[in-house]
Each structure stands twice: as C-alpha cells, then as structure tokens.
Amino acid sequence: MRRRGATLVELLIAFGVLAATSTMTTSAVLSYLSAGEGQKHLTHAMGIAQSKVEDLLVLYADDPLLDGAHGPERYDAAGAPTDSTDAYQVSWTGRPHPGLDGLLVLEVSVTWTEGLGQRSFAIETARTGP
C-alpha cells in the first residue's frame, strides 16, 4: 500500500526544526541590531570628543579651561549643548606633560548610558604652550 502525505510525527518534527531555526535567526538579527546601536553611540561620542579637543586646542595656553579637571557638559547626538539627563556627558582635564616642559596634555572623556550600563570613550592629545 502506498502512502500519501506526511504523518503527524513527521509534521511535528518539521515544525520543531522550523521553530528552532526561526529562534536562532531572530536572536542573530537582534544581536546585530543591538551592536549597530552601540556603534552609533560610539560614533557620536567620538565626534563630540573630537569637537571638544578642537575647541580646547585653539585656546591660549594660560586659559583656565586648560588647567585641571572640568565638566561634565551635556551634549545631544548632534553635538549641541543640552540639559537632558540622557545626553552625552563630556569632561576634560589639562595637565603638564610629566617629561616634557612646555607641553600640555589634554584628555577629553565622553560618557553615555547604553542599555543597562554606562559606556565611555576618551581621547588624549598634547599641545605646546604659548
């Protein structure tokens, strides 16, 4: 006798394989999207830090903004100042280079909240005195 179609057991196995494959695919897509969101925040933070470094590099060497710790200032993703609590927080420090007289080290740090944790990015550069 010849059978036509699939048995109930074969159908259940096929649906089980389909469900497992769908779950793995969905998990992979969600991980990819989450990583993309993190990269977007990091890219914004890098731009904000670079902009702050450029602002500090054009100041005169004796400007008080180049001496000691400053901040935090808050910026949105476009780099505009904001009062929002979920903004990027920018802090910076200026200090003399420990081994080279007349050289000032500037460190700019950007911190933001992503998911359940806090992430940060820092950039450091040096400039000469007056």
Tell me the count of domains.
1
**Quick one: how many beta strands?**
4
**Mean of pLDDT:** 84
Structural class, by secondary structure, is alpha+beta
Low-confidence stretches: none
What are the secondary-structure elements, in order, as H or E? HEEEE
Q: Estimate what percentage of residues fall within beta strands.
A: 25-35%
Instruction: Name the assembly state.
Output: single chain
Largest sheet: 4 strands, antiparallel
Label the overall shape: rod-shaped
With helices defined by DSSP (H or I, 4 residues minimum), what is the helix count? 1
Rg over alpha carbons: 26 Å
Main β-sheet, spatial strand arrangement: 1-2-3-4
Summarize the structure in words:
- This protein has 130 residues and is an alpha+beta fold.
- The protein has one domain (8-128).
- Helix content is 38%, strand content 32%.
- Strands 1-2-3-4 form a four-stranded antiparallel sheet, covered by helices on one side.
- The longest helix is centred in the N-terminal third of the chain and has 50 residues, at 8-57.
- The mean pLDDT is 84.
